């Protein structure tokens, strides 16, 4: 179901844009909680997220 308006006000389970969430603890990434992404996609995003550095503007 496509919507013309943002789905920000929907609960995560009903939001078509929601893919899941990464759970972090003080040591870094703990696990991914979601059902949409494959293990390979989860691993790719985990590496990207942990190594991301904001550019200097």
Give an overview of the whole structure.
By secondary structure, the protein is α+β, with helices and mostly antiparallel strands. The chain has a domain at 22-57. It has one helix spanning 39-51, and strands at 21-25, 28-33. A two-stranded antiparallel ribbon has the order 1-2. The longest helix has 13 residues, at 39-51.
Low-pLDDT stretches:
none
Could you tell me the mean pLDDT? 81
**Helicity range of the residues?**
10-25%
Distance between the termini: 38 Å
The largest β sheet comes out as:
2 strands, antiparallel
The DSSP helix count reads 1
Strand content: 15-25%
Can you summarize this structure?
By secondary structure, this protein is an alpha+beta fold. It has one helix at residues 39-51; strands at 21-25, 28-33.
Give the secondary structure arrangement, pairings included.
Elements: E1 21-25, E2 28-33, H1 39-51
Antiparallel strand pairs: 1-2
């Amino acid at each position: 179901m496509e919507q013309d308006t943002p789905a920000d006000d929907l609960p995560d389970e009903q939001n078509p844009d929601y893919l899941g969430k990464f759970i972090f603890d003080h040591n870094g990434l703990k696990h991914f909680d979601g059902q949409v992404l494959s293990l390979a996609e989860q691993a790719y995003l985990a590496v990207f997220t942990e190594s991301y550095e904001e550019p200097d503007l």
